[in-house]
Amino acid sequence: MATTKETVLIVEDSPTLALTYQSYLAPLGLEITLAETGELALSHIMEQEPSIILLDLKLPDMDGIDILKRLSAEQVKSRVIVITAHGSVTVAVEAMREGASDFLLKPFTAERLTTTVNNALEISRLSSLVQRIGSGAHKSFFKFIGDSSVMQAVYRMIKDSAPSKASVFIVGPSGTGKELAAEAIHQLSPRKNKRFVALNCAAIPTNLIESEIFGHVKGAFTGATSDRKGAAIMADGGTLFLDEICEMPLDLQSKLLRFIQTSQIVPVGSNTPVDVNVRFVCATNRIPADEVTAGRFREDLFYRLHVVPIHMPALRDRGQDVLAIARSMLATFSAEENKKFQTLSNDAESRLMSHNWPGNVRELGNVIQSTVVLNDGPELTADMLRPTLGTLPGQSLSNSNTSSAFVTSTHNTTPPPTHAHIPVDTIEPFAVVERRIMETAIALSGGKVRKAAKALKINPSTLYRKLERWQAGKE
Fold first, then answer.
1. What secondary structure does DSSP assign to 312-345, as a single string?
2. What pTM value is reported for the model?
3. Parallel, antiparallel, or unpaired for β 31-35 and 7-11?
4. Could you identify which of 62, 289, 296, 432 might form a hypothetical disulfide with 38, taking C-beta atoms 3.0 to 4.6 angstroms apart as the criterion?
Protein backbone atom coordinates (compact mmCIF):
# COMPACT_ATOMS: atom_id res chain seq x y z
CA MET A 1 0.00 0.00 0.00
CA ALA A 2 1.44 3.34 -1.02
CA THR A 3 1.95 5.84 1.76
CA THR A 4 2.98 9.48 1.80
CA LYS A 5 6.45 9.94 3.29
CA GLU A 6 6.47 11.92 6.52
CA THR A 7 8.44 15.14 6.38
CA VAL A 8 10.41 17.28 8.82
CA LEU A 9 11.36 20.93 8.39
CA ILE A 10 14.38 22.00 10.46
CA VAL A 11 14.40 25.76 11.03
CA GLU A 12 17.89 26.60 12.34
CA ASP A 13 20.17 29.51 11.37
CA SER A 14 23.34 27.60 12.24
CA PRO A 15 24.25 25.35 9.28
CA THR A 16 26.41 23.19 11.56
CA LEU A 17 23.58 22.54 14.01
CA ALA A 18 21.05 22.04 11.20
CA LEU A 19 23.22 19.36 9.60
CA THR A 20 23.80 17.78 13.01
CA TYR A 21 20.05 17.53 13.65
CA GLN A 22 19.59 16.14 10.15
CA SER A 23 22.15 13.42 10.81
CA TYR A 24 20.44 12.58 14.11
CA LEU A 25 17.13 12.07 12.30
CA ALA A 26 18.54 10.18 9.31
CA PRO A 27 17.84 6.70 10.77
CA LEU A 28 14.10 7.51 10.91
CA GLY A 29 13.86 7.58 7.11
CA LEU A 30 12.06 10.93 7.00
CA GLU A 31 12.18 13.50 4.23
CA ILE A 32 14.08 16.43 5.76
CA THR A 33 14.22 20.05 4.59
CA LEU A 34 16.41 22.82 6.06
CA ALA A 35 15.55 26.52 6.41
CA GLU A 36 17.97 29.13 7.82
CA THR A 37 15.47 31.95 8.36
CA GLY A 38 11.88 32.38 9.50
CA GLU A 39 10.91 33.83 6.12
CA LEU A 40 12.22 30.80 4.24
CA ALA A 41 10.51 28.51 6.73
CA LEU A 42 7.12 30.20 6.36
CA SER A 43 7.40 30.16 2.58
CA HIS A 44 8.07 26.42 2.62
CA ILE A 45 5.30 25.70 5.15
CA MET A 46 2.67 27.62 3.16
CA GLU A 47 3.66 25.76 0.02
CA GLN A 48 3.76 22.29 1.59
CA GLU A 49 2.96 21.63 5.24
CA PRO A 50 5.53 19.28 6.80
CA SER A 51 4.56 16.62 9.32
CA ILE A 52 6.93 18.05 11.94
CA ILE A 53 8.59 21.46 12.30
CA LEU A 54 11.77 21.62 14.38
CA LEU A 55 11.92 25.34 15.22
CA ASP A 56 14.76 27.25 16.83
CA LEU A 57 13.17 30.15 18.70
CA LYS A 58 16.09 32.50 18.01
CA LEU A 59 16.33 33.29 14.31
CA PRO A 60 18.11 36.21 12.59
CA ASP A 61 15.02 37.72 10.94
CA MET A 62 12.18 37.02 13.37
CA ASP A 63 11.28 35.54 16.72
CA GLY A 64 10.12 31.92 16.89
CA ILE A 65 7.07 32.92 18.94
CA ASP A 66 5.93 35.16 16.08
CA ILE A 67 6.25 32.22 13.70
CA LEU A 68 4.11 30.11 16.01
CA LYS A 69 1.45 32.83 16.09
CA ARG A 70 1.49 32.96 12.28
CA LEU A 71 1.13 29.20 12.02
CA SER A 72 -1.78 29.29 14.46
CA ALA A 73 -3.51 32.06 12.48
CA GLU A 74 -3.07 30.08 9.25
CA GLN A 75 -4.34 26.91 10.99
CA VAL A 76 -1.24 24.97 10.02
CA LYS A 77 -1.60 21.38 11.24
CA SER A 78 2.11 20.57 11.46
CA ARG A 79 3.31 19.65 14.92
CA VAL A 80 5.98 22.08 16.12
CA ILE A 81 8.87 21.14 18.40
CA VAL A 82 10.66 24.28 19.57
CA ILE A 83 14.36 24.44 20.40
CA THR A 84 15.61 26.90 22.97
CA ALA A 85 18.70 27.50 25.05
CA HIS A 86 19.16 25.78 28.40
CA GLY A 87 17.59 27.81 31.16
CA SER A 88 14.88 29.32 28.92
CA VAL A 89 12.05 27.18 30.22
CA THR A 90 9.78 30.22 30.52
CA VAL A 91 10.15 30.86 26.80
CA ALA A 92 9.43 27.21 26.07
CA VAL A 93 6.24 27.36 28.14
CA GLU A 94 5.16 30.46 26.21
CA ALA A 95 5.80 28.57 22.99
CA MET A 96 3.58 25.71 24.19
CA ARG A 97 0.81 28.22 24.87
CA GLU A 98 1.14 29.46 21.30
CA GLY A 99 0.66 25.98 19.86
CA ALA A 100 4.01 24.17 20.08
CA SER A 101 3.56 20.50 20.87
CA ASP A 102 6.88 19.97 22.65
CA PHE A 103 10.25 21.60 23.29
CA LEU A 104 13.94 20.70 23.51
CA LEU A 105 16.51 22.48 25.62
CA LYS A 106 20.00 22.79 24.14
CA PRO A 107 22.17 20.82 24.24
CA PHE A 108 20.36 17.52 23.61
CA THR A 109 21.38 14.07 22.44
CA ALA A 110 20.48 12.27 19.21
CA GLU A 111 18.35 9.85 21.24
CA ARG A 112 16.42 12.69 22.85
CA LEU A 113 15.73 14.29 19.46
CA THR A 114 14.63 11.09 17.73
CA THR A 115 12.40 10.13 20.66
CA THR A 116 10.73 13.54 20.67
CA VAL A 117 10.19 13.51 16.89
CA ASN A 118 8.87 9.94 16.97
CA ASN A 119 6.41 10.89 19.72
CA ALA A 120 5.24 13.90 17.72
CA LEU A 121 4.72 11.74 14.63
CA GLU A 122 2.69 9.18 16.57
CA ILE A 123 0.53 11.90 18.12
CA SER A 124 0.05 13.47 14.69
CA ARG A 125 -1.17 10.17 13.28
CA LEU A 126 -3.54 9.68 16.21
CA SER A 127 -4.82 13.25 15.96
CA SER A 128 -5.56 12.76 12.26
CA LEU A 129 -7.43 9.60 13.10
CA VAL A 130 -9.54 11.35 15.75
CA GLN A 131 -10.35 14.22 13.37
CA ARG A 132 -11.52 11.80 10.70
CA ILE A 133 -14.15 10.32 12.99
CA GLY A 134 -17.56 11.36 11.71
CA SER A 135 -16.25 12.36 8.26
CA GLY A 136 -15.60 9.30 6.17
CA ALA A 137 -14.79 6.96 9.05
CA HIS A 138 -16.67 3.70 9.38
CA LYS A 139 -19.78 4.05 11.55
CA SER A 140 -20.05 0.28 11.31
CA PHE A 141 -17.95 -2.47 9.77
CA PHE A 142 -19.38 -5.90 8.93
CA LYS A 143 -21.02 -6.94 12.21
CA PHE A 144 -19.15 -4.32 14.24
CA ILE A 145 -20.82 -1.12 15.41
CA GLY A 146 -18.84 1.98 16.39
CA ASP A 147 -16.59 4.67 14.98
CA SER A 148 -14.16 5.26 17.86
CA SER A 149 -10.53 5.88 16.96
CA VAL A 150 -9.41 2.53 18.37
CA MET A 151 -11.98 0.67 16.27
CA GLN A 152 -11.05 2.61 13.13
CA ALA A 153 -7.54 1.25 13.65
CA VAL A 154 -8.95 -2.30 13.98
CA TYR A 155 -11.02 -1.89 10.81
CA ARG A 156 -7.94 -0.77 8.88
CA MET A 157 -5.90 -3.71 10.15
CA ILE A 158 -8.64 -6.12 9.10
CA LYS A 159 -8.90 -4.60 5.61
CA ASP A 160 -5.14 -4.47 5.12
CA SER A 161 -4.51 -8.03 6.29
CA ALA A 162 -7.50 -9.74 4.64
CA PRO A 163 -6.05 -10.14 1.10
CA SER A 164 -2.85 -11.72 2.46
CA LYS A 165 -2.11 -15.37 3.15
CA ALA A 166 -0.32 -14.45 6.38
CA SER A 167 -1.57 -15.81 9.70
CA VAL A 168 -3.45 -13.34 11.89
CA PHE A 169 -3.28 -13.39 15.69
CA ILE A 170 -6.15 -11.57 17.41
CA VAL A 171 -5.78 -10.69 21.08
CA GLY A 172 -8.12 -8.97 23.48
CA PRO A 173 -10.39 -9.52 26.49
CA SER A 174 -13.35 -11.88 26.30
CA GLY A 175 -16.45 -10.40 24.73
CA THR A 176 -14.67 -7.88 22.49
CA GLY A 177 -15.53 -9.50 19.16
CA LYS A 178 -12.45 -11.52 18.23
CA GLU A 179 -14.48 -14.03 16.23
CA LEU A 180 -16.30 -11.21 14.43
CA ALA A 181 -12.90 -9.84 13.41
CA ALA A 182 -11.89 -13.29 12.12
CA GLU A 183 -15.10 -13.56 10.10
CA ALA A 184 -14.54 -10.10 8.63
CA ILE A 185 -11.01 -11.07 7.58
CA HIS A 186 -12.42 -14.16 5.84
CA GLN A 187 -15.20 -12.25 4.09
CA LEU A 188 -12.75 -9.66 2.75
CA SER A 189 -10.25 -12.28 1.61
CA PRO A 190 -9.95 -14.16 -1.71
CA ARG A 191 -11.09 -17.22 0.26
CA LYS A 192 -14.56 -15.82 1.01
CA ASN A 193 -16.30 -18.37 -1.24
CA LYS A 194 -14.83 -21.24 0.78
CA ARG A 195 -15.67 -22.17 4.36
CA PHE A 196 -14.90 -20.27 7.53
CA VAL A 197 -14.52 -22.88 10.27
CA ALA A 198 -14.27 -21.78 13.88
CA LEU A 199 -13.00 -24.02 16.68
CA ASN A 200 -12.86 -23.02 20.33
CA CYS A 201 -9.87 -24.79 21.84
CA ALA A 202 -11.08 -24.09 25.39
CA ALA A 203 -14.50 -25.67 24.84
CA ILE A 204 -13.30 -29.09 23.65
CA PRO A 205 -12.08 -31.85 26.01
CA THR A 206 -8.32 -32.36 25.79
CA ASN A 207 -8.67 -35.94 24.57
CA LEU A 208 -10.91 -34.90 21.67
CA ILE A 209 -9.30 -31.70 20.41
CA GLU A 210 -6.85 -33.47 18.08
CA SER A 211 -9.71 -35.30 16.41
CA GLU A 212 -11.72 -32.09 16.16
CA ILE A 213 -8.90 -30.38 14.27
CA PHE A 214 -7.42 -33.20 12.21
CA GLY A 215 -10.31 -35.69 12.05
CA HIS A 216 -10.07 -39.44 12.61
CA VAL A 217 -10.57 -42.73 10.85
CA LYS A 218 -12.93 -45.50 11.84
CA GLY A 219 -11.61 -47.48 14.81
CA ALA A 220 -9.05 -44.85 15.84
CA PHE A 221 -10.41 -44.91 19.39
CA THR A 222 -13.41 -46.17 21.32
CA GLY A 223 -16.51 -44.62 19.82
CA ALA A 224 -14.92 -43.84 16.44
CA THR A 225 -17.49 -45.82 14.44
CA SER A 226 -16.79 -44.07 11.14
CA ASP A 227 -14.33 -41.76 9.44
CA ARG A 228 -14.75 -38.11 10.44
CA LYS A 229 -13.41 -35.00 8.80
CA GLY A 230 -11.82 -32.50 11.15
CA ALA A 231 -12.00 -28.71 11.08
CA ALA A 232 -8.82 -28.46 9.00
CA ILE A 233 -10.22 -30.47 6.07
CA MET A 234 -13.60 -28.73 6.31
CA ALA A 235 -11.80 -25.37 6.02
CA ASP A 236 -9.68 -26.51 3.04
CA GLY A 237 -9.35 -23.54 0.69
CA GLY A 238 -10.88 -21.26 3.30
CA THR A 239 -10.09 -19.99 6.80
CA LEU A 240 -9.48 -21.97 9.98
CA PHE A 241 -10.16 -19.91 13.09
CA LEU A 242 -8.64 -21.32 16.29
CA ASP A 243 -10.16 -19.42 19.19
CA GLU A 244 -8.48 -19.50 22.62
CA ILE A 245 -5.37 -20.98 20.98
CA CYS A 246 -3.37 -20.65 24.21
CA GLU A 247 -5.58 -23.36 25.77
CA MET A 248 -4.24 -25.94 23.32
CA PRO A 249 -2.16 -28.72 24.97
CA LEU A 250 1.58 -28.58 24.29
CA ASP A 251 1.72 -31.98 22.57
CA LEU A 252 -0.97 -30.88 20.11
CA GLN A 253 0.83 -27.57 19.55
CA SER A 254 3.74 -29.50 18.02
CA LYS A 255 1.36 -31.23 15.59
CA LEU A 256 -0.24 -27.91 14.69
CA LEU A 257 3.21 -26.47 14.02
CA ARG A 258 3.97 -29.34 11.63
CA PHE A 259 0.63 -28.73 9.89
CA ILE A 260 1.56 -25.08 9.37
CA GLN A 261 5.02 -25.97 8.07
CA THR A 262 3.96 -28.76 5.68
CA SER A 263 0.32 -27.93 4.85
CA GLN A 264 -0.42 -31.58 5.61
CA ILE A 265 -2.43 -33.27 8.33
CA VAL A 266 -2.64 -36.87 9.51
CA PRO A 267 -6.08 -37.85 10.87
CA VAL A 268 -6.06 -39.66 14.21
CA GLY A 269 -5.57 -43.38 13.60
CA SER A 270 -4.21 -42.91 10.09
CA ASN A 271 -0.71 -42.96 8.64
CA THR A 272 -1.64 -41.20 5.42
CA PRO A 273 -0.96 -37.46 5.22
CA VAL A 274 -3.61 -35.26 3.59
CA ASP A 275 -2.79 -31.98 1.81
CA VAL A 276 -4.79 -29.08 3.24
CA ASN A 277 -4.70 -25.42 2.27
CA VAL A 278 -6.06 -23.10 4.98
CA ARG A 279 -5.46 -19.57 6.15
CA PHE A 280 -4.88 -19.49 9.92
CA VAL A 281 -6.55 -16.91 12.15
CA CYS A 282 -6.06 -17.39 15.90
CA ALA A 283 -7.31 -15.61 18.97
CA THR A 284 -6.76 -15.52 22.73
CA ASN A 285 -7.81 -13.48 25.73
CA ARG A 286 -4.42 -14.09 27.31
CA ILE A 287 -1.13 -12.29 26.67
CA PRO A 288 0.66 -14.66 24.24
CA ALA A 289 4.17 -13.50 25.16
CA ASP A 290 3.47 -14.29 28.83
CA GLU A 291 2.25 -17.76 27.87
CA VAL A 292 5.47 -18.35 25.92
CA THR A 293 7.59 -17.17 28.86
CA ALA A 294 5.66 -19.43 31.23
CA GLY A 295 6.28 -22.42 28.96
CA ARG A 296 2.59 -22.97 28.20
CA PHE A 297 2.83 -21.99 24.54
CA ARG A 298 5.54 -23.02 22.10
CA GLU A 299 7.74 -20.12 21.01
CA ASP A 300 8.20 -21.49 17.48
CA LEU A 301 4.43 -21.88 17.07
CA PHE A 302 3.88 -18.38 18.40
CA TYR A 303 6.14 -16.85 15.75
CA ARG A 304 4.48 -18.94 13.03
CA LEU A 305 1.03 -17.68 13.97
CA HIS A 306 1.80 -14.19 15.27
CA VAL A 307 2.49 -12.67 11.85
CA VAL A 308 -0.23 -10.00 11.74
CA PRO A 309 -1.31 -9.05 15.28
CA ILE A 310 -4.67 -7.34 15.84
CA HIS A 311 -5.64 -6.02 19.27
CA MET A 312 -9.34 -5.83 20.10
CA PRO A 313 -9.93 -3.00 22.60
CA ALA A 314 -12.02 -3.36 25.73
CA LEU A 315 -15.47 -1.75 25.52
CA ARG A 316 -14.52 0.81 28.19
CA ASP A 317 -11.80 2.07 25.82
CA ARG A 318 -14.23 2.73 22.97
CA GLY A 319 -15.89 5.93 24.22
CA GLN A 320 -19.24 6.69 22.60
CA ASP A 321 -19.31 3.30 20.86
CA VAL A 322 -21.01 2.05 24.03
CA LEU A 323 -24.12 4.07 23.23
CA ALA A 324 -24.11 3.23 19.52
CA ILE A 325 -23.98 -0.49 20.33
CA ALA A 326 -26.62 -0.14 23.08
CA ARG A 327 -29.04 1.64 20.72
CA SER A 328 -28.61 -1.06 18.07
CA MET A 329 -29.14 -3.81 20.64
CA LEU A 330 -32.19 -2.00 22.02
CA ALA A 331 -33.80 -1.98 18.57
CA THR A 332 -32.96 -5.64 17.97
CA PHE A 333 -34.17 -6.99 21.32
CA SER A 334 -37.29 -4.79 21.31
CA ALA A 335 -38.29 -6.27 17.96
CA GLU A 336 -37.56 -9.82 19.16
CA GLU A 337 -39.55 -9.36 22.37
CA ASN A 338 -42.32 -7.31 20.73
CA LYS A 339 -41.64 -4.36 23.05
CA LYS A 340 -42.13 -0.63 22.42
CA PHE A 341 -38.64 0.67 23.25
CA GLN A 342 -37.32 3.26 20.80
CA THR A 343 -34.69 5.30 22.64
CA LEU A 344 -32.40 5.47 25.65
CA SER A 345 -33.05 8.27 28.14
CA ASN A 346 -30.25 10.71 28.97
CA ASP A 347 -29.87 9.24 32.44
CA ALA A 348 -29.68 5.72 30.98
CA GLU A 349 -26.95 6.84 28.59
CA SER A 350 -24.99 8.37 31.45
CA ARG A 351 -25.43 5.18 33.43
CA LEU A 352 -24.12 3.05 30.55
CA MET A 353 -21.16 5.38 29.96
CA SER A 354 -20.16 5.33 33.64
CA HIS A 355 -20.03 1.53 33.90
CA ASN A 356 -16.63 -0.19 33.55
CA TRP A 357 -17.90 -3.10 31.36
CA PRO A 358 -15.57 -5.90 32.48
CA GLY A 359 -17.58 -8.29 30.29
CA ASN A 360 -17.28 -5.96 27.28
CA VAL A 361 -19.83 -6.10 24.43
CA ARG A 362 -21.16 -9.46 25.60
CA GLU A 363 -21.99 -7.97 29.00
CA LEU A 364 -23.64 -4.94 27.39
CA GLY A 365 -25.80 -7.26 25.30
CA ASN A 366 -26.89 -9.18 28.39
CA VAL A 367 -27.78 -5.96 30.22
CA ILE A 368 -29.85 -4.54 27.35
CA GLN A 369 -31.61 -7.84 26.65
CA SER A 370 -32.45 -8.41 30.31
CA THR A 371 -33.75 -4.85 30.68
CA VAL A 372 -35.93 -5.17 27.59
CA VAL A 373 -37.35 -8.50 28.76
CA LEU A 374 -38.26 -7.13 32.20
CA ASN A 375 -39.61 -3.72 31.14
CA ASP A 376 -41.53 -1.91 28.40
CA GLY A 377 -42.17 1.61 27.18
CA PRO A 378 -40.97 4.01 24.51
CA GLU A 379 -37.86 4.99 26.51
CA LEU A 380 -35.40 2.84 28.43
CA THR A 381 -34.44 4.67 31.63
CA ALA A 382 -31.67 4.39 34.22
CA ASP A 383 -34.15 3.04 36.79
CA MET A 384 -34.86 0.13 34.45
CA LEU A 385 -31.13 -0.56 34.09
CA ARG A 386 -30.30 -0.37 37.76
CA PRO A 387 -31.57 -3.81 38.91
CA THR A 388 -29.44 -5.54 36.28
CA LEU A 389 -26.46 -3.21 36.03
CA GLY A 390 -26.20 -2.75 39.78
CA THR A 391 -25.62 -6.45 40.40
CA LEU A 392 -22.85 -6.96 37.87
CA PRO A 393 -19.08 -6.90 38.60
CA GLY A 394 -17.18 -3.81 37.53
CA GLN A 395 -19.84 -1.48 38.92
CA SER A 396 -18.64 2.09 38.70
CA LEU A 397 -18.95 4.39 41.67
CA SER A 398 -20.64 6.84 39.35
CA ASN A 399 -24.34 7.52 39.60
CA SER A 400 -26.35 8.35 36.50
CA ASN A 401 -25.06 11.91 36.34
CA THR A 402 -21.40 11.27 37.10
CA SER A 403 -20.07 11.15 33.56
CA SER A 404 -21.22 14.63 32.63
CA ALA A 405 -20.52 15.99 36.09
CA PHE A 406 -16.89 14.89 35.91
CA VAL A 407 -16.40 16.80 32.68
CA THR A 408 -17.61 20.05 34.16
CA SER A 409 -16.22 19.72 37.67
CA THR A 410 -13.58 17.37 39.02
CA HIS A 411 -12.51 19.13 42.21
CA ASN A 412 -15.35 18.17 44.56
CA THR A 413 -13.73 15.64 46.90
CA THR A 414 -16.79 15.05 49.15
CA PRO A 415 -18.51 11.82 48.10
CA PRO A 416 -22.31 12.00 47.83
CA PRO A 417 -24.17 10.43 50.75
CA THR A 418 -25.66 7.79 48.41
CA HIS A 419 -22.19 6.24 48.08
CA ALA A 420 -21.71 5.58 51.77
CA HIS A 421 -22.72 1.92 51.45
CA ILE A 422 -20.37 1.10 48.59
CA PRO A 423 -17.38 -1.09 49.60
CA VAL A 424 -13.97 0.54 49.28
CA ASP A 425 -12.69 -2.32 47.12
CA THR A 426 -15.05 -1.26 44.32
CA ILE A 427 -13.28 2.07 43.90
CA GLU A 428 -11.85 2.43 40.40
CA PRO A 429 -8.18 3.37 39.90
CA PHE A 430 -7.61 7.05 39.19
CA ALA A 431 -6.11 6.26 35.76
CA VAL A 432 -9.34 4.53 34.70
CA VAL A 433 -11.50 7.44 35.85
CA GLU A 434 -9.11 9.97 34.27
CA ARG A 435 -9.23 8.16 30.95
CA ARG A 436 -13.03 8.03 30.96
CA ILE A 437 -13.23 11.74 31.73
CA MET A 438 -10.84 12.65 28.91
CA GLU A 439 -12.48 10.38 26.33
CA THR A 440 -15.92 11.67 27.28
CA ALA A 441 -14.68 15.24 26.91
CA ILE A 442 -13.28 14.47 23.44
CA ALA A 443 -16.54 12.83 22.40
CA LEU A 444 -18.61 15.78 23.70
CA SER A 445 -16.24 18.11 21.80
CA GLY A 446 -16.93 16.37 18.52
CA GLY A 447 -13.54 14.67 18.44
CA LYS A 448 -11.67 18.00 18.72
CA VAL A 449 -8.82 17.44 21.13
CA ARG A 450 -7.96 21.11 21.64
CA LYS A 451 -11.58 21.95 22.41
CA ALA A 452 -11.74 19.08 24.90
CA ALA A 453 -8.49 20.21 26.53
CA LYS A 454 -9.86 23.73 26.90
CA ALA A 455 -13.02 22.40 28.57
CA LEU A 456 -10.91 20.30 30.93
CA LYS A 457 -8.57 23.25 31.53
CA ILE A 458 -5.46 21.26 30.66
CA ASN A 459 -2.77 21.72 28.04
CA PRO A 460 -3.66 20.06 24.69
CA SER A 461 -0.22 18.44 24.65
CA THR A 462 -1.13 16.60 27.85
CA LEU A 463 -4.24 15.18 26.22
CA TYR A 464 -2.37 14.27 23.04
CA ARG A 465 0.27 12.43 25.07
CA LYS A 466 -2.42 10.50 26.96
CA LEU A 467 -4.10 9.50 23.69
CA GLU A 468 -0.78 8.35 22.31
CA ARG A 469 -0.06 6.17 25.34
CA TRP A 470 -3.56 4.64 25.28
CA GLN A 471 -3.21 3.90 21.56
CA ALA A 472 0.12 2.21 22.22
CA GLY A 473 -1.41 0.20 25.08
CA LYS A 474 0.99 1.67 27.65
CA GLU A 475 -1.72 2.70 30.11
1. PPPGGGSTTHHHHHHHHHHHHHHHHHT----EE-
2. 0.57
3. parallel
4. 62
